[in-house]
Specification:
Oligomer: homodimer
Largest interface: A-B, 80 and 80 residues
Family (chains A, B): Belongs to the class-I pyridine nucleotide-disulfide oxidoreductase family.
Distance between the termini of chain A: 72 Å
Structural class of chain A: alpha/beta
Mean pLDDT of chain A: 97
Cofactor (chains A, B): FAD
CATH topology of the largest domain in chain A: FAD/NAD(P)-binding domain
Organism (chains A, B): Actinacidiphila cocklensis
Protein name (chains A, B): Mercuric reductase
CATH architecture of the largest domain in chain A: 3-Layer(bba) Sandwich
Low-confidence stretches of chain A: none
Keywords (chains A, B): FAD, Flavoprotein, NAD, Nucleotide-binding, Oxidoreductase
Chain lengths: 478, 478
Amino acid sequence: MNDAPRTYDVIVIGAGPVGENLAGRARAAGLSTVVVESELVGGECSYWACMPSKALLRPALAQADARRLPGLKDAVQGPLDTPAVLARRDYFTANWKDDGQVAWLDSVDVDLVRGHGRLDGPRQVVVETPEGGSVRLAARHAVAVCTGTTAALPPMPGIADVNPWTSRDATSAKKAPRRLAVVGGGVVAVEMATAWQALGSQVTLLVRGGALLERVEPFAGEMVADAMREAGVDLRFGANVASVERDGAGGEVRIGLEGGARISADEVLFAVGRAPHTGDIGLETVGLKPGSWLTVDDTCQVTGVEGGWLYAAGDVNHRALLTHQGKYQGRMAGAAIGARANGEPVDDAPWGAHVATADHAAVPQVVFTDPEVAAVGLSAAEAEQAGRRVQVVDYDLAHVAGASLYGDGYRGKARMVVDLDRGILVGVTFVGPGVGELLHSATVAVVGEVPVDRLWHAVPAYPTISEIWLRLLETYRG
Amino acid sequence: MNDAPRTYDVIVIGAGPVGENLAGRARAAGLSTVVVESELVGGECSYWACMPSKALLRPALAQADARRLPGLKDAVQGPLDTPAVLARRDYFTANWKDDGQVAWLDSVDVDLVRGHGRLDGPRQVVVETPEGGSVRLAARHAVAVCTGTTAALPPMPGIADVNPWTSRDATSAKKAPRRLAVVGGGVVAVEMATAWQALGSQVTLLVRGGALLERVEPFAGEMVADAMREAGVDLRFGANVASVERDGAGGEVRIGLEGGARISADEVLFAVGRAPHTGDIGLETVGLKPGSWLTVDDTCQVTGVEGGWLYAAGDVNHRALLTHQGKYQGRMAGAAIGARANGEPVDDAPWGAHVATADHAAVPQVVFTDPEVAAVGLSAAEAEQAGRRVQVVDYDLAHVAGASLYGDGYRGKARMVVDLDRGILVGVTFVGPGVGELLHSATVAVVGEVPVDRLWHAVPAYPTISEIWLRLLETYRG
């Protein structure tokens, strides 16, 4: 080890989309910047999450759309060509090679050090390189932790021995298991259950509670559950996994549920939560607890660390476990680091240039199931818990002409939550086929704090699904 | 004829979507309201425009989407089942029966008089009924003309003798002609050329000028032209129709172009413009010129008519020939009539409750071709002509992850026009498959006059096509 550190203005640990965005913004502010990556540049999202999962889901959703259209539906009654879908997925993950992403770093003049980075006291990072050496880095201004999360497995005896799937396996599998058991009821669980059922697996979805997608409006999970059952998923609520074992290497997995039921499958995916990827990054050298979530302020500066040099953006700060929101934090944190380093004023008023205000008010999410679920801001329950005086407005999407035209038998629902004291929207949820791109209209309305009276002038094109906006506003106005 | 008039607060001539919305709002304001309709309640949109055209186009677009997806595309290489598509179209036009729409009028307590309505001096309307009688109506407060437009045929000798298609025939045809010539380059022309080419016709599109869709950003028409050619349409620019004749009843149509070229087809659609449907509605009895567009203020009150009792909403006022914008005018005019009748203040400041301000700033339009074209507000050229100091920001949609996932070989483009003095958007255009529902995000941004700096906080969900917003804003910020 060469003890003379390589010094940069900014060190970023983790070259996923969040680290990339943060590094890009810091560099754009004129700061010399290095990122440290122990796996692939591009991170979880590019190789084992957003990109491959959507590549698996997109043909399934397009097929479902086509099956709702007389004139086209007869042609698409057969199964998807699974090898072709998997090959397309491989393309979108660049076959798990990161040359393209490395080229991007080069193009914006951000350095890359490959290896496992660990904090080593204030502003110091030591990277254990793949070759067995180490590189010491020192930061003049900031170190940003963008290490994300890993799949959390339940503490169950012998679980590692069954070689369970996590989100990584579910997104990168080379063939469809004949029988796939999925444990969980959140986004990863429902998306992967949807994808693999469409790709030929018989999926059993084991949900501990009584609902899917518990963080959004309850009707979303209900509609997704109905559709999954119709697609052939064996969906079981109140299913607590008590034991899991595999019948020899490559044999079937046997899952025991509390109450005694047993399920056999060829693979089992555990999608029961995420843990911060901070167990072995030297947090203890700066007074923080290894394995903990990193608490940050709105500029993504870690609280409780002297000198204000440590930042954390993305999943690891636990504000919103979504790629796009982490990228947003990365942009804001990178800009804040730049402003502070350059002695410029930090614009940290709400919605300022250096704060991730939207984390509190307008986190959008699209779940790529059939129906799609698209939500931003507060649910009705969250608004109520927050003590807001709100009106909840619901409308059946099946009654919107554009939705009916989109596909026969269209089922969907929309809800908007109006803050009656401010006359603005604080939350909007759409559930239905083809609503994903509609979400951003709601995000702009919530973030822009556009008065409901002004939204009355925002005319949706006819006949699109967007006309739901007119119906919601008419319903609100009574 | 019974000369004692039936008196209402408000008389609406024309029960299309615009008249329905206006009547509904007037009635909601407590005014007794009657609508007069000479054809079908529901109007052009429901039977011969938006609804049937989108019913014809939707399977074609879904097929195009499916053909871009490995794993699904092999199944959809064959032609659409045209009879099934036409049957679905018939369903969406309710087989050209208006019972459902009449039931809606009943449900909101608006009266209906069937027949041809004509003004007969101030506040008077005489309806010639289908039975050969007449009904005299008198309005206490307002008469609203919502008669829309009809297809304009070029003044060409013998054109009527060839029994040409207009938009009505193109949307209601019972089978696909083997060869269809389409004259025009606007929305109706490109949508119907797209639909019938997909439904089995060999379409020849004859465009007088050198571009399609001349009212939106030039790249839109270029991309649609490229795609139409690839779909097999014989697209000819600079094609001026000089003569047209049919070879006997039911025989082929022969079209002569200036310069001497000749085209044979089984049917010819003229989609070369619209004329106000005001030729025979008694305008002369109130000092206006029959056959003219009706000029209105922002409350849709016709200018130059004494007493302020005459309104005109929808296509007939020539502000924006789009169903949704006409409906918006109908809502605003109905509310304005209600306020004036009830002696309430009229909120006619820009974006007020009684004015159609969006007609000037934010008219959205989606063209349902492959690629879709979605635009709102000013084009770059229009902004420049208006003397605005703007920055034009372009981005290639093919470089957005969500677009690539949407379909292989994705081609699309987006443009936003930023008003540099106000720091807001004045126009946005998206061209590409699947962008239709994305438009409303732009409409909310333009209508809400959301500052560009605030839009930076409106995070698009990853990976959707909506991420184009991030790319446009990044490009703008440099």
